[in-house]
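Sorry to interrupt, but I need a hand with the structure work. Go ahead and set the record down below:
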Amino acid sequence: MVTRDSKTPEEELQHLKEVSQPEDFEHPEPDEDQPEAKESPHGLHRVLPIVIVVLGILAAAMLLLSGNAQ
């Protein structure tokens, strides 16, 4: 069963015109329907060092506690 849509030459031409539109450099801000593009990428840079420090403290505590259990 073939599920491919066949297009007329006019539809193909219209599709190629739509696809080949140049990028809008005059309005480079993110689209309103893309809120994730407006979010600042700095959140991860603040959280990652905290997570690394907490994991280091937990690993050190586990090593110290496992040495005292014997």
Notes: The helical segments are 9-19, 42-68. The first helix runs from residue 9 to 19. The radius of gyration is 27 Å. The CA atoms of residues 1 and 67 lie 67 Å apart.
